């Protein structure tokens, strides 16, 4: 047994070494690519997907025609377009940010685009994730986005990865790319991507969007890899330099909880593509969002660029003596799951839990009280008839009143939320303060309104 464990350990060590070597190889390949693209600018004969037809300088006729509107820009020109055509960009997340980013990168002719997403298209995505079509509901998002951008540009190579990017597969997937776009929505993946980009020496263009606000910045920038001036060694901050400790799990809002206006991620994702193009063509770091963050609020259309903390010489990941030398367990580090939908709490004893079916029977009793702990806008959107709204964020401040209501009520007091997690948290808060004889009145509806819609009322909206 010991021998087997020892062998497994050795195999794991060898596997890790292999990934590191593959990574080194890819870095070498990347610099080779850069040199080749420099040769192309000097009149070599092949570019853009290996198309070798009639050449005009470094680009074939079709590419000159197709990309002429951007080639005309002094900042891009033929050399810039050649670089764009040989660049390979990895987009992580094919949601609100990933869709517009992929669209513009494909349109501008980025030669290789990888798209990672494990999830499937849902009808709630389509108001903002405009690469996904109604007929693709249920299809994997990476596949759906890949299909859509292939129809925008058939000259480029698009690779969908239908997986969750995590510590075990990230280095391998990223090693095939020159830069990474963070188009995800959760803290564990943000830290993963930052550490990944430090280890793999890739710049990371990070976007976020919630409600009416969007943010954009570039992490892990290295001038030695991305500008013409190979003598300078300026390096921008990584995500950990700016946010050394993860936010508390409750502080990270999600679009499914707080909502988002479609054009916000639409704009930020588009600007992520813009920063990617600027990086590819070798724009100076002073003109990129390195060590700076764009913050946009469409409520009053204000847009500002704020200075971020610079690279931390003691950073655990990107300092010269890092303590993080391989990818770690980011869900443990952030104390939250990367897949919000998979969070399923079990924090109440069975006596305090009932199914939607059991509630539908209890509901007939006049003495049953239903307390919906979602926020006000969710409650206004849809709720079970007779429910009273008491948002989870106010439970602490309204504790006295809630305790009184439970004690005065003769029947059951049932807590409900969207999926059945917040309702358990609220119920638990009350249980810790209630006198023993009232505790069995408290019930949590297992699976929340999703279970209600699935098992009892098919007409109830699922969101
Ligand atoms: N580690 C990961 N690997 C692959 N894809 C990821 C990872 N983390 C997040 N994503 C994907 O990033 C995308 C983020 O999209 P977005 O922020 O628009 O939210 P959503 O999950 O699509 O929608 P909603 O929050 O409204 O349900 C999602 O499609 C999600 O599946
Ligand atoms: Zn750092």
Automatic annotation (TrEMBL):
<feature type="binding site">
    <location>
        <position position="241"/>
    </location>
    <ligand>
        <name>Zn(2+)</name>
    </ligand>
</feature>
<comment type="function">
    <text>Plays a central role in 2-thiolation of mcm(5)S(2)U at tRNA wobble positions of cytosolic tRNA(Lys), tRNA(Glu) and tRNA(Gln). Acts by mediating the C-terminal thiocarboxylation of the sulfur carrier URM1. Its N-terminus first activates URM1 as acyl-adenylate (-COAMP), then the persulfide sulfur on the catalytic cysteine is transferred to URM1 to form thiocarboxylation (-COSH) of its C-terminus. The reaction probably involves hydrogen sulfide that is generated from the persulfide intermediate and that acts as nucleophile towards URM1. Subsequently, a transient disulfide bond is formed.</text>
</comment>
<feature type="domain" description="Rhodanese">
    <location>
        <begin position="364"/>
        <end position="461"/>
    </location>
</feature>
<feature type="binding site">
    <location>
        <position position="96"/>
    </location>
    <ligand>
        <name>ATP</name>
    </ligand>
</feature>
<keyword id="KW-0479">Metal-binding</keyword>
<feature type="active site" description="Glycyl thioester intermediate; for adenylyltransferase activity">
    <location>
        <position position="255"/>
    </location>
</feature>
<dbReference type="GO" id="GO:0046872">
    <property type="term" value="F:metal ion binding"/>
</dbReference>
<feature type="binding site">
    <location>
        <position position="238"/>
    </location>
    <ligand>
        <name>Zn(2+)</name>
    </ligand>
</feature>
<comment type="pathway">
    <text>tRNA modification; 5-methoxycarbonylmethyl-2-thiouridine-tRNA biosynthesis.</text>
</comment>
<keyword id="KW-0547">Nucleotide-binding</keyword>
<dbReference type="InterPro" id="IPR028885">
    <property type="entry name" value="MOCS3/Uba4"/>
</dbReference>
<dbReference type="GO" id="GO:0006777">
    <property type="term" value="P:Mo-molybdopterin cofactor biosynthetic process"/>
</dbReference>
<dbReference type="GO" id="GO:0032447">
    <property type="term" value="P:protein urmylation"/>
</dbReference>
<keyword id="KW-0511">Multifunctional enzyme</keyword>
<dbReference type="InterPro" id="IPR045886">
    <property type="entry name" value="ThiF/MoeB/HesA"/>
</dbReference>
<feature type="binding site">
    <location>
        <position position="315"/>
    </location>
    <ligand>
        <name>Zn(2+)</name>
    </ligand>
</feature>
<dbReference type="Pfam" id="PF00581">
    <property type="entry name" value="Rhodanese"/>
</dbReference>
<keyword id="KW-0862">Zinc</keyword>
<dbReference type="GO" id="GO:0005524">
    <property type="term" value="F:ATP binding"/>
</dbReference>
<keyword id="KW-0067">ATP-binding</keyword>
<dbReference type="GO" id="GO:0042292">
    <property type="term" value="F:URM1 activating enzyme activity"/>
</dbReference>
<feature type="binding site">
    <location>
        <position position="117"/>
    </location>
    <ligand>
        <name>ATP</name>
    </ligand>
</feature>
<feature type="active site" description="Cysteine persulfide intermediate; for sulfurtransferase activity">
    <location>
        <position position="417"/>
    </location>
</feature>
<dbReference type="InterPro" id="IPR035985">
    <property type="entry name" value="Ubiquitin-activating_enz"/>
</dbReference>
<dbReference type="InterPro" id="IPR001763">
    <property type="entry name" value="Rhodanese-like_dom"/>
</dbReference>
<keyword id="KW-0963">Cytoplasm</keyword>
<keyword id="KW-0819">tRNA processing</keyword>
<dbReference type="GO" id="GO:0002143">
    <property type="term" value="P:tRNA wobble position uridine thiolation"/>
</dbReference>
<feature type="binding site">
    <location>
        <begin position="185"/>
        <end position="186"/>
    </location>
    <ligand>
        <name>ATP</name>
    </ligand>
</feature>
<keyword id="KW-0808">Transferase</keyword>
<dbReference type="GO" id="GO:0005829">
    <property type="term" value="C:cytosol"/>
</dbReference>
<dbReference type="InterPro" id="IPR000594">
    <property type="entry name" value="ThiF_NAD_FAD-bd"/>
</dbReference>
<dbReference type="GO" id="GO:0070566">
    <property type="term" value="F:adenylyltransferase activity"/>
</dbReference>
<feature type="binding site">
    <location>
        <position position="318"/>
    </location>
    <ligand>
        <name>Zn(2+)</name>
    </ligand>
</feature>
<dbReference type="InterPro" id="IPR036873">
    <property type="entry name" value="Rhodanese-like_dom_sf"/>
</dbReference>
<feature type="coiled-coil region">
    <location>
        <begin position="4"/>
        <end position="31"/>
    </location>
</feature>
<protein>
    <recommendedName>
        <fullName>Adenylyltransferase and sulfurtransferase MOCS3 homolog</fullName>
        <ecNumber>2.7.7.-</ecNumber>
        <ecNumber>2.8.1.-</ecNumber>
    </recommendedName>
</protein>
<dbReference type="Pfam" id="PF00899">
    <property type="entry name" value="ThiF"/>
</dbReference>
<dbReference type="GO" id="GO:0004792">
    <property type="term" value="F:thiosulfate-cyanide sulfurtransferase activity"/>
</dbReference>
<keyword id="KW-0175">Coiled coil</keyword>
<feature type="binding site">
    <location>
        <position position="141"/>
    </location>
    <ligand>
        <name>ATP</name>
    </ligand>
</feature>
<keyword id="KW-0501">Molybdenum cofactor biosynthesis</keyword>
């Amino acid at each position: 047994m010991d021998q087997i464990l020892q062998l497994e350990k050795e195999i794991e060590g060898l596997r890790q070494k292999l990934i590191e070597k593959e990574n080194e190889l890819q870095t070498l390949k990347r610099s080779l690519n850069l040199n080749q693209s420099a040769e192309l600018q000097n009149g070599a004969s092949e570019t853009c997907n290996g198309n070798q037809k009639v050449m005009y300088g470094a680009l074939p006729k079709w590419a000159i025609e197709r990309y002429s509107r951007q080639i005309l820009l002094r900042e891009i020109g033929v050399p810039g377009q050649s670089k764009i055509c040989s660049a390979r960009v990895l987009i992580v997340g094919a949601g609100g940010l990933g869709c517009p980013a992929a669209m513009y990168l494909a349109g501008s002719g980025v030669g290789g685009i990888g798209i990672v997403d494990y999830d499937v298209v849902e009808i709630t995505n389509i108001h903002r994730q405009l690469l996904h079509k109604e007929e693709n509901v249920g299809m994997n998002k990476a596949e759906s986005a890949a299909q859509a951008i292939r129809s925008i540009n058939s000259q480029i190579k698009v690779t969908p990865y239908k997986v969750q990017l995590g510590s075990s597969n990230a280095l391998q997937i990223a090693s095939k790319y020159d830069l990474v776009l963070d188009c995800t929505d959760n803290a564990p993946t943000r830290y993963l991507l930052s550490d990944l980009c430090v280890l793999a020496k890739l710049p990371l263009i990070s976007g976020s969007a919630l409600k009416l606000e969007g943010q954009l910045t570039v992490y892990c920038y290295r001038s030695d890899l991305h500008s013409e001036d190979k003598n300078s060694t300026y390096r921008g901050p990584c995500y950990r330099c700016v946010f050394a400790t993860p936010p508390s799990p409750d502080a990270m809002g999600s679009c499914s909880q707080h909502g988002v206006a479609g054009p916000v991620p639409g704009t930020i994702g588009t600007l992520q593509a813009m920063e990617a193009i600027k990086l590819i063509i070798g724009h100076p770091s002073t003109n990129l969002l390195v060590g700076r963050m764009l913050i946009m609020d469409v409520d009053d259309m204000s847009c500002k660029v704020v200075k971020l903390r610079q690279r931390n010489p003691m950073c655990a990941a990107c300092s010269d003596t890092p303590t993080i030398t391989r990818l770690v367990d980011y869900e443990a580090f952030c104390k939250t799951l990367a897949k919000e939908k998979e969070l399923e709490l079990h924090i109440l004893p069975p006596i305090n839990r009932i199914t939607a079916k059991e509630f539908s029977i209890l509901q007939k009793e006049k003495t049953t009280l239903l307390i919906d702990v979602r926020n006000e806008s969710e409650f206004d959107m849809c709720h079970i008839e007779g429910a009273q709204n008491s948002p989870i964020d106010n439970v602490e401040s309204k504790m006295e009143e809630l305790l009184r209501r439970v004690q005065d009520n003769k029947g059951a007091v049932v807590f409900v939320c969207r999926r059945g997690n917040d309702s358990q948290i609220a119920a638990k808060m009350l249980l810790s303060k209630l006198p023993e004889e009232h505790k069995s009145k408290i019930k949590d509806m297992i699976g929340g309104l999703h279970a209600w819609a699935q098992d009892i009322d098919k007409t109830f909206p699922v969101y």
